[in-house]
Amino acid sequence: MSAARLEAFLAKIYVDEDSRQRFLADPRGEAAKAGLNEREIGSLEKIDRAGLILTAQSLQKKRRRLYRKRSKG
Amino acid sequence: MKFNRAGNNTIQDRVGLGWRPELAVGILSHLDRIDVVEVIADDLFDAPRGERRALRALSAQTAVVLHGVSLGLASSVPVETKLLEKTARLCEEANPEYWSEHLAFVRGGGVEIGHLTAPPRTDATIEGAAANLKRARDVVGSAPLVENIATLIDPPGSDYDEIDWIDRIIDSSPSDLLLDLHNLHANATNFGYDETEFLKRLPAERIVAVHLAGGKWVEALGERRVLDDHLHDVPDAVYRLLTELAAVVPHPLTVILERDGAYPPIETLLRQLDRAREALTEGRSRQFEQIEKEAA
Fold this sequence. Notes:
The structure holds 2 protein chains of 2 kinds. By secondary structure, chain A is mostly helical. Chain A has one domain. Chain A is about 85% helix and about 0% strand. Chain A has helices at about 1-15, 15-25, 25-35, 40-45, 50-70. Chain A starts with a helix and ends with a helix. The model of chain A has no long low-confidence stretch (mean pLDDT about 90). Chain B is an alpha/beta fold. Chain B has a single domain (about 15-295), classed as Divalent-metal-dependent TIM barrel enzymes (TIM Barrel, Alpha-Beta Barrel), CATH 3.20.20.150. Helices cover about 40% and strands about 20% of the residues of chain B. Chain B has helices spanning about 25-30, 50-60, 80-95, 125-140, 160-170, 180-190, 195-200, 235-245, 265-295, and strands at about 15-20, 35-40, 65, 100, 105-110, 110-115, 145, 175-180, 205-210, 215-220, 225, 255. In chain B, the strands form 3 sheets. An 8-stranded parallel barrel of chain B has the order 1-2-3-4-7-8-9-12, surrounded by 4 helices. A two-stranded antiparallel sheet of chain B has the order 5-6. In chain B, strands 10-11 form a two-stranded antiparallel ribbon. In chain B, a hairpin with a 2-residue loop joins strand 10 (about 215-220) and strand 11 (about 225). In chain B, helix 4 crosses helix 5 (about 160-170) and helix 8 runs parallel beside helix 9 (about 265-295). Chain B is globular, with a radius of gyration of 19 Å.
């Protein structure tokens, strides 16, 4: 179950700006609140911050394109 | 492995292009220079009957393969049955030579990420991927080829490096590998490992198909990374990797060029296919020379 929780947590910080900002301000607190285990929390404290920002930027563009395409039918 | 007496390469590699509506006219008018066409499965899941008929018409004219982007197979969470059933219906209609998907997760906890994302490389995602791939095979009727993805972030919570993680999934699943050489190049560049060594560590006998694409540099917090955006031409490094690969893979490869926008004239893309053929020929020659040397 913890593996699924970690994936859910990552999905959230990758696509949701507010969640990401809260996480970057307090990685341990936010990860613990999500019910992640100590090993996962430790890993998130050392997150590749440049990678996180670039991933979020890239996903934002791709999601925008995707929704534009879907709304065109 | 087959070589004729004259030393010519007789391994029948094929080179093709990803189908996009913007490229349709160019593809259909150059089928003599395109051996195989790759169609995005998800675009047709809920498409009107006319579009699905067009796919059948295309597969009557040329070799067609299907490529999925939304199953999210590399996850500790079971793949959605509804999506597998849609894939199964499409495979039945289009009769592709194979279908493929990514080693990615695309949703979690009710959040749709909207694109391919690298999961934590752990035992949980290895076991999840293996179980999902077996289910995919059971529902669709054939196992997908699985593709390595590009990532801008070193996935948090990982216990394995990328290659060990891929190896373990391949070992424990019915799927062979669709190796995306630009994804390999991007990840090697972004995370500082040797791309040729990476290639050597992969099981050559399990690599069946190849993707080629291009990308660009992006930057944050003073760090540069390669983004695999499919909007740029294939870089030289990727052709070099294709040659390296063709020098060791013992069976025919299907190579697909992916382009998702900023479309150049079709002739530019056809030239990239020609370059891929040259890279393959060079690799096959090297393989042949090696065999000759060992036989002498």
